[in-house]
Amino acid sequence: MSFCGSKNRARSVAEGVVKNECFVDVLNIVPHAIFVLVSLFILIVWCKSKYYNATSWVHFRGHNVRWFFSLVLIVIIVTEIAEGFMSDARDPDTVNYHVFIPPIIALVATILSLVFYHNIEQWNSPRFLLIILAYWMSVLPIKILKGVSLYKNGTSIVHVRVWLTWIDVALYMILLTVEINLLRVQKYAFFKNPVPTKIPPELGGSKFVFKHVNFLSKVTFWWLNGFLADGYKTPYEQEHLGQLPKDIQTESVYKRFKAVFEDELEKCKRSGKKLNFHKVYLKVFWRNLCLAGILRFFGDIVQFVGPWCIELIINYAYAQVKLRESTNPTNGSLTYSGVSNVSQAVVVYNSSSAVSLGNFSVTMATPQNTNLHTRYISTGDFFSNGFVIAVVLLLTTTVQAACHQFYGFITINEGARFKVAVQAMVYNKGLHISGLVINSGKMTMGQILNHMSQDATNMMLLFFFIHYVWSVPLTVIIGLVLMYMKMGWTALIGGSVVVMSGPLQYFVGKGMSNMQKKVMAQSDKRVKKCNEAIQGIKVIKLLAWEYFFRQDIEASRKMELKRLFANCIFRILFTFILIAVPTIGTVVTFVLYPSLEESPLNVGKALSTLALFNILTIPMALFTYFITTFITARVSMKRLVNFLLAEENEGLADQPKTLTHSIGIDTEDIKMDTIVEYRNGTKKTSTSLQKDDDLSSSQSSLGSNLSRTPDHSRHNSKGSLPEMMEGSRRSSSQTAYTGAALTVNDGKDSQRRRHTSGVSTEDEEEVAENVTVMEAKNVFEICDGEFSWHLNKEDESALKNINVKIPVGKLTMIVGQVGAGKTSLVSAILGEMTTISGHVEITKGVRIAFVPQKPWLLNATLKDNILFGEPYNHRRYTKVIHSCALQPDIATLPAGDQTEIGEKGINLSGGQKQRISIARALYSKADTVILDDPLSALDAHVGKHVFEDAIVKCLVRRKRSVILVTHQLQYISHSNYLIAMKDGMVQYQGKLSEVKKQEPELYESWRKALREAKASESSRDHHEEPRSPDRSSPFDYSRQISTQSILSGGSQLFSRQMSEMSNMEEECLDFSEKDPLKQDDKKIDGELVKKEHKEVGAVSLRVYGQYVAACGGLFICFMMMLQVGYHVLLAWSNIVLSQWAEDSTEFQTKLSNLSNVGSANETSNVTLKFDNDIYMHKYLLLNIVGLLGAFIANLVLYLTTLRASKNLHFRLLDTILHVPIRFFDTNPSGRIMNRFSADVAGIDQRLPFILESFIRCVMVTVSALAVNAIGTPYFLIAVLPLTILYYCLQFFFRATARELQRIESVTKSPVFSHLSETLSGLQTIRAFRAEKRFKKRAFTLIDNNNIPYIFVMSINRWLGIRLDYIGSLLVFISAVSSLATCLAGHTTPAYVGLSLTYALQVSIYLNWIVRNAAEMELTMNSVERVDEFIHLKREVNTHHKGHHELEKDWPNHGKIEFKNVSLKYDTHLDKVLNDACFTINPGEKVGICGRTGSGKSSLTLSLFRMIDICEGEIYIDEKDTKRVPLEELRSKLAIIPQDPVLFTGTVRYNLDPQGEIPDEKLWAALETVQLKESIAELPDKLDANVSEGGENFSVGQKQLFCLARAFLRDNKVLVLDEATASIDLETDNKLQRVISTAFGGKTVITIAHRISTILKYDRVMVLEKGTVKEFDSPQSLLRDSNSIFTSLVHSSKK
To answer: Which end of the chain is more exposed for a tag (fewer CB within 10 A), N or C?
Structure first.
């Protein structure tokens, strides 16, 4: 025995070298062996060199092509090895090593070529590629020589070896071509100027390295191994994930998508067509979608190899069984005995009958092998071998898995990119959308949030299934053709059932989609109500309205559950069709087959047809899912397009839309820009010059009308540059600029900027240098303006005949009663209203700061709220803090200015929020500051300080233009220009000194209001110390607010006297010496909003237990019994089918042999007929009962999960409404709303669907394993290690997947919170021009949410492909083990086919099991999060001594006693009220005053037990409030809160949610609070709609609504928490009179900003730092010149 074999002349070359195959095979070994040695040497030795220990991950040209064809070459060589062994086995005389040794060495060399190439890329050393080039060049000619040798020796194309050899030649030629092309392109050798391959710059910053790994790693997702290993060792946090590659980041995707969107929109406008959103996203993402489609196509084609292999394996098994039986004549013989001349007899055969016909036996002879012996195996023999077919089955299932998984990876990534593009577009639109769209109710904030969440997700899901639109029809057509080829017309009839189910599934899907829309609409309503309840939770608790809101929300939830049930019916039908269609198709096919087809039922055909039906099942189901997804996406698409095309705000138009500017040219660093302008559909191109600097800071070409001159002199509009004062006008919908007074940076200080007056906003005290300034006369000018709060210009206008000029560098005040149009005028200036006629002219390039009437703060630190994106300047910042009197507040905060401010400033008082808002405007570099009634929220002395130090000193004195809306008439003497509004028109504008002449009635009304407010003060003037006059001040800072002096020209000194309790004198005057802001060490203490809790590890069994409990244990048990039952019945029916086919085949085989014998003897007239009925009836019965059980089982499942949804939502809502108010301070509303929206939606809809899919996949897999185990017990031995591997894989996967999903869930909330925050502060953001910064922040948050999602989807593919490989191995093991068992005679060929049919299903369902299990666990995370909130600590509503028994009219006196009461907001925080001890007598009216943050609101809230009473007791009418049930306590007290809140609904609903109060009382209450006229003018009066947040009413009107509520409650105790702060002085005086009369005999506690409102009260309480300092009558306190109250009165009078 030798290498060439032991035959004679095996090594002879007498006939030539080419004809000696052994010699040629030896030659083939040489290049492979040399390459192996060289490459191993380099890999082992060279890799240890210090010069090549770093990896660069570059990819050379042709990387993917090389890897692909090298892998194909490996498969071909493995086939050569198998063929060599099989060919050698045909030669029993010797072992021919040369037949299989060369391909083994070639396999090693090919694998090493890939390893070597991979390392060369990592080293980035292309010169080593010369070794591979030499290898390909040497192996190719020798392989061609091998082909020639085969031809010379007479080997033909019928032999496998010939095909394999020439395929090798073709592959070597391709690889050699790739290598030569790389040398040509990169020139790494033999050229003077090589082209280096650059290392990717993204490496190192991202863990998502997909683009940088090799082809095999991409295909197998091997690159995720390290990522998963790290996640398994240490649970991932957000910061561990790094960044995404740039092409997946939101900003880059958004830019591309926006460009295409705007291009398509412009084309549609010109053509008059509607925007086609499909065209937009296909233009952006078409490349990768096409690649995904190619992969889908190949995967779908390859999957049909499985059924073909089943039939071939069964046929092979039958052939081998026949061969075995032929060696034993007694086995399988059919005996015929009887009388020789029987005319005719019919014998019915079935498996239990014995047939004896005649006295002779039929021997089934083995067919003779007529093939001549050849050395090489033929193609037919090779591919008819069952074990080879098993290997083919393994390869094809592996290729199918790779194609489908990579297809999924591409579509998911593209879908994620589509999602973030949509989210970015929605956010960008949200920044520019007209506020009128939201306020009018045309589009709510909830709907915009839905665009960001639900609609964006629907767009993403569309990509997941987009290729099913052609893939499913293709699969069905191919399946039907193959079934027809096997089973004839009966297969088409059965297949038509599948095809006919398509329209049925479509209608079911359409019904499900329509119902889904109704569910979503109802869900939106419920979520909107939940959102309103959370936003107004403080008011709800104070008014004890929890029950009514819970009832209202539960009513909405009940309607939602009804629609969910209807939706569940469609889902049940959908699932039933999925199960029933293939079952019914097979039943129809096999029942009709015996009747319609002449040939008998064959096992191979039957079971391969069954496998084809199984193949059609999932695509049809997914096609239906695609249809529903497409319909849902289409609905979302329409909603998105409507939103993206919605009206935008007119804005300030700092960049006019025609982009035609006068240009001031700086000769330094000029660059050319091309401007494309569209006018009336015509495109015009022009060129502009622009300074090569940041436009936002320099504005040298487009934002400035200034020019530098050598002597730095000023020029005005009448000077040498008249063209630079040209302005653009805003007509109807467009704001324009007129006049300008900006600076051009000199390049030395890009941060420095001058405002319109010429004074630096960086440091007002410094003189502007090196700058030319042109003065503009007016910063704003409105000409013939008419403005409306409605989008439709034909609707009623809010402002009419507006002709207003706002002077530059002056203080302009806007005054008027509530609803007069003051805020509307400001909004019109800012472009937030609809311009019906006229125009607004704005100084070009003006920078604006805006302080809204309702302060808007970010959920950030106090410092960040003031800086608002500006760079930190210590000196400037400290000045601002001092001017806004914030130092004492900062000193008391736990972390100073690093204290985190809760959402909407929930942890601050109203005054603190307003002063921070003012500080933001002061700190900004704006030259124009607009303040919309900010002083109303401030105490008198603090308001005085802020007005004088902040507004007058820091703004007006520095020549910054100021527009101040105010109700504080005492300040109007400081105005340079005055605008009085009345009924939406300008009643008066001009100087204060001229108002008496031009508007005497207005003058008298002001005098009367001030006289009434100060009447009580005039009588006490003798208590005041005289002040020294000082006329050096340009303004009258200290005018006495009396009837005579308010409009007089007298002037007195303003003394900087603050209250003693604030200690502001010491702290504010010494601000330059000490810095109380340095409190970085308290940073952690200042965190108010807690980081959202994230569980670590697997979802606990307790959570599953909670869900089971919510479902009901009995329901779960019953449902599981039904699920198991119907799967057992369906599996049993398939076993009956296989037995039926096997018996039929056996009968026909024996009958055929019997017929041959009978024809030879010519003695038989007997007709044998196979009995199909017994099998048919059993098969039908099992399927019918199984399908009925499937329907009932799924119905019970969905009913059970709906029960859980109902219970969990009710418990969640009930808990949230009853948790302490502190919970809402530390948890943003977005986080809470996430539970009510995303988490509840997951429990309602995702979890039932996933649970059903999971149970079904598990049952099918268990059925498959059971069928295989019954037929082949040895199968279990082989499956055991795979099962262990399977468990380890999914366990390893889930450790990382669950944490990523949790991160993804946690990072969702900030995205929606930021959007909600942005929409709430749109006017402020747009006024500050901060859109770009907010957009950048939004993109960062979207990326943070997208990173874990991308990784979750990627590791799903990692798991999926490995499970597919395990499934492929299971199929292979099933084929080999069952085939071997069959050949050993322990099972039948039919059972081999059935085992393979089920095994092919396992390869599909194994993946779905883990995917559904992971998905279910991730969805159970929603249950976990809801359960977390369900078990929150509720408000204490019990007492160890029990509750008091209260009288029906309690409290009937109104006596209030505080006994050593101390209050805390939380157990770990400091006290906000210390040892308060006082008594308020029945019917007494008490005023509470003190500086902001002194504890005024906290004291009043303690009456309602909104704050924990940590020490002492509070008694109301001798009853301890701790022993009074919360709801009863709060319902017996009345309060008008600091922040007015209205709820969506009607006017009636906001006054009386119970609907119990008659209209007469409602109108009386409205008349009392001066609202009757306003409501009576509305079309529906009491039933008029109140928009979300009450935005269709002014802040003052909303405050009056709250007053009306208090009047209607008619309680003995009334608390007014700064209730009239936002009301003008005249209305306030009227209401004070009403309060004194309407609440006569009732206890009234008032927290007042206007000291005048409480001077007539019985007693006044003064608080300082949580301590009661003074409590006596106003008269007594004023007699003491040293009292704090006296100083407050003095301060308020200045």
So the answer is: N
Q: CA of 1365: how far to CAs of 404, 610, 1003, 1126, in Å? A: 12, 23, 89, 29
In the DSSP assignment, the letter for residue 1227 is S
Name the residue among 1624, 1572, 1638 with its Cα closest to residue 1596.
Answer: 1624
Torsion, Cα 1067 1069 1075 1076, to 10 degrees, reads: 20
Average pLDDT across each block of 10 residues of the chain; the chain has 1694 residues. List them in order: 59 65 82 91 72 63 89 91 81 74 91 89 84 91 86 81 90 92 85 76 74 86 89 84 84 90 87 85 90 91 87 81 63 38 38 36 36 61 84 89 90 90 91 79 77 85 86 86 83 80 77 82 85 85 86 89 90 84 83 75 79 78 73 84 84 44 32 38 39 35 34 35 32 36 36 44 39 57 85 77 88 86 87 85 85 86 89 90 87 81 73 88 90 81 84 87 86 86 87 82 78 50 37 30 30 30 32 36 48 60 88 88 89 83 74 61 56 81 90 92 91 90 79 84 87 88 81 76 84 84 82 86 88 90 90 88 85 83 78 78 75 79 86 80 78 88 82 88 87 79 85 88 86 81 84 84 84 83 81 77 81 78 64 71 80 80 87 86 80 58
Check residue 992 and report its DSSP letter.
G
Quick check: helix, strand or coil at residue 1645? strand
Round to whole Å and give the CA distance between 778 and 983: 25
Q: Strand pairing of 334-336 and 778-788?
A: unpaired
Closest-CA residue to 1688 (of 1020, 1070, 1053, 912): 1020
Assigned token pair, 864: 């960040």
Which residues, 6+ apart, have CB-to-CB distance to 516 below 8 Å? 567, 628, 632
For the CA atoms of 1011, 1017, 1019, 1023, what is the dihedral angle to 10 degrees?
A: -150
String of DSSP letters for 54-115: -------TTHHHHHHHHHHHHHHHHHHHHHHHHHHHT-TT---HHHHHHHHHHHHHHHHHHH
User: Within its chain, how far is the Cα of 805 from the centroid?
Assistant: 46
Cα separation, 713 vs 467, in Å, equals: 69
Q: Per residue in 274-304, is it b (16+ CB within 10 Å) or e — as a string?
A: ebebeebbeebbeeebeebbebbbebbbbbb
Residue 614 · residue 1401 · CB < 8 Å? yes
Dihedral pair phi/psi, residue 356, rounded to 5°: -130, 110
CA distance 280 to 262: 9
Angle between helices 1173-1216 and 1247-1271 in degrees, nearest 10:
150
Report how far apart, in Å, the C-alpha atoms of 1310 and of each of 1103, 1317, 1343 are.
25, 10, 11
Burial label, 521 (beta-carbon count in 10 A; 0-12, 13-18, 19+): exposed
ω before 1451 within 30° of 0 (cis)? yes
HSE-CB of 1283 using CA atoms within 13 angstroms: 9
Distances (CA, A) of 1046 to 276, 872, 1014, 1051, 1168: 64, 41, 11, 10, 124
Q: Give the dihedral sign, CA 1676/1680/1681/1682.
A: negative
Q: Are strands 928-932 and 848-851 parallel, antiparallel or unpaired?
A: parallel
Dist CA 1323 CA 854 (whole Å)? 11
Do residues 206 and 1275 touch, judged by C-beta distance below 8 A? no
Name beta bridge partners: 1516.
Answer: 1456, 1519
What residues does 1010 pair with on adjacent strands? none
Give the whole-angstrom CA distance, residue 978 versus residue 961: 13
- In the block, tokens 């010699």 appear at 23
Which amino acid belongs to residue 552? D
Q: What is the DSSP letter of 440?
A: T
